[in-house]
Amino acid sequence: MAADHPGNGTPAQAAPVITIDGPTASGKGTIAQRVAQALGWHVLDSGALYRLTALAVLRDGGDGTDEAQAARLARRLDVRFQPDAILMGGEDVGALIRQEEVGNLASRVAAWPAVREALLARQRDFRRTPGLVADGRDMGTVVFPDAPLKIFLDADVGVRAQRRYKQLKDKGFSANLDDLLQDLRARDARDRGRAHAPLVAAADAVTVDSSHQGIDDVVRQVLDLWSAHGPA
Q1: Annotated binding residue at 27?
Q2: Coiled-coil annotation: which residues (predicted)?
Q3: Which of 27, 54, 135, 173 has the fewest CB atoms within 10 Å, i.e. the most exposed one?
């Protein structure tokens, strides 16, 4: 669902990487999965690591105000990513980390330098042959700055709210569209305004607006860009 476990496969710093950064609900995860599948590559959903950290904070009795606590839990995460599950301590928490409470806390936790530093090496461990598609908010700017192809996937906030609303309803969660829109705007402000690793397109990134494009169209665009620029 989110990524293969970094313990599987052969580590290779020279393995190619396609980074897909962008705001919440822009479609990064879906596009990354589809591109990776088409190329036969590994995939990293970096946002899942921050959501897992947020869930760990909640379960540890935290309220998202203690940076040291969050960093400690991030370093100690017992996580395995499988094709159809995300395991933390052996428990499938894939659905739990998609809840809005966890997502909102993850956005706050991700602003802390100590947490980002704690997860940096773990994210880079996912880079191995034959290649990696990594999605997040600072994949192209901080985690994999040497990636040969960097995508910044954007979409209108209203469109993103509609997508998140449908996603939650389809999974059986209650949701309010107006609340989701406010939450997304607040997350965007936090992600773009944080001092450490803010959400911003890398200088050499290609911006793709998915507001009025289907998944297949965006996937095809990314694959065409890789064919034209990546392998060279």
Answers
A1: yes
A2: none
A3: 173
Mean pLDDT computed over every residue of the chain: 89
Fold category of 17-219 in CATH = Rossmann fold (3.40.50)
- Is 64 known as a binding-site position? no
Average pLDDT over residues 216-231: 90
- Domain limits of the chain? 17-219
Is 83 annotated in some ligand binding site? no
Does 25 count as an annotated binding residue? yes
Residue 103 CA to residue 198 CA, distance in Å, equals: 17
Q: Is 24 annotated as a binding residue?
A: yes
Q: Is 232's pLDDT higher than 80? A: no
DSSP class per residue in 118-180: HHHHHHHTT-BTT-EEEEESSIIIII-TT-SEEEEEE--HHHHHHHHHHHHHHTT----HHHH
23 is in an annotated binding site: yes
